[in-house]
Amino acid sequence: MPNLLDHDSAGLEAVLLAWGEKPFRARQLLRWIHQRGERDFAAMTDLAKSLRERLVAEALVAAPRVRGDLRSADGTRKWLMDVGAGNAIETVLIPEADRRTLCVSSQAGCALECAFCATGRQGFNRNLSTAEIVGQLWWANHCLAEEAGIAPRVDRRMITNVVMMGMGEPLANFDNVVKALRLMIDDCAYGLSRRRVTVSTAGLVSGIDRLREACPVALAVSLHAPNDALRDRLVPINKKWPIEALLAACMRYLEKAPRDFITFEYALLKDVNDGPEHARELVSRVRDVPCKVNLIPFNPFEGSGFQRSSRDAVARFRDILMRADLMTTVRRTRGDKIDAACGQLAGQVQDRTRRRVRRESEATV
Ligand code: SAH
Fold it and tell me: Which residue among the candidates 110, 188, 250, 342 is catalytic per the annotation?
């Protein structure tokens, strides 16, 4: 049975055309499903009765089932969502004075094995479907509107920004992520501006080039090191696409990007990548790329083997970048009490790589 959350506008039109319906029905359906959060086709009163009946019989609107809802004192909230076969993913709501950002997952687990990331540690199970990705946004809208006691409407957005910074590497699940992005920016669905939707990548160069053609949105790149020797260790995908190739892809991306800068994310790890020499090397490395640097004090998790940089080290690092005229922000740590901060999302993943076995055998030698 087709889950209509799986289809962007073009996909929905194709389904309806095959049913002998007019293409504009797709836009009507999108508004019902995504803007009003309606999943009962019988309630979609401006659709012909025959179409409603066929939808009731042959289609559904199904977001992942919510199994947990945790709130932190700073307002951050984390939903644990069941995606079947023992896998669960996490979605994080980050309210701020002027916006409500949703941090969305793209995979159950992650295959990239970045050294300092909890999701990478736990292994990889599978890509999420478009319905599972956009379903996180569908759910958040639905739930927040209901709690506020108002009917969801596109001009009263519950979620104002989306960052693809949850579990997984979005560009490794390219097709499903792009379909979800298209729904996020579609005026008949969530209607978010491209500037308010951010894809964050560990540096998949081919994916960056494809995204630039398929659906350019704001781009964040997880850099974390100023040279290849160190980045090879922290972000192993660097061995395939080293820093120079990555920065060249960023420059190409900027030609089509909705924002005129790339965000570089840099997690500060005590005594690993947080020295003044690293800051100076970073400055010289990214000098020619229009960018902002977002410093993320490392969020610890059990057995990570890394520590958060001291406040002084963070400030010193930031000051070196700022003195070199690099726009720099330090990300405020939020939601860490409920393990909802960057790199702490772990959900529940039935690992299909042999990662854990390998780690354990390494640990015993
Ligand atoms: N795979 C994508 C999306 C994950 S976004 C990517 O790598 O960009 C999550 C961000 O948090 C990334 O920048 C990631 O490198 C960073 N991160 C991961 N683990 C972290 C940790 N323990 N502390 C701080 N930041 C972390």
Answer: 342
Q: At what angle do helices 243-254 and 276-286 cross, to 10 degrees?
A: 50
Taking Cα atoms as reference points, which of 187, 130, 195 lies closest to residue 162? Answer: 195
**pLDDT tens digits for range 285-322:** 999 999 999 999 999 988 999 999 999 999 999 999 99
Active site residue 360: no
Say if CB 142 and CB 120 are below 8 A apart: no
Residue-wise pLDDT tens digits, 156-208: 789 999 999 999 999 999 999 999 999 999 999 999 999 999 999 999 999 99
Residue closest to 90 by CA, chosen among 346, 363, 360, 353: 346
Residues listed for the chain: 365
SS3 19: coil
Taking the model in full, what pTM does it have? 0.96
d(CA 225, CA 120): 17
224: left (phi over 0), alpha (psi -120 to 50) or beta: left
| Catalytic residue check, 90 | yes
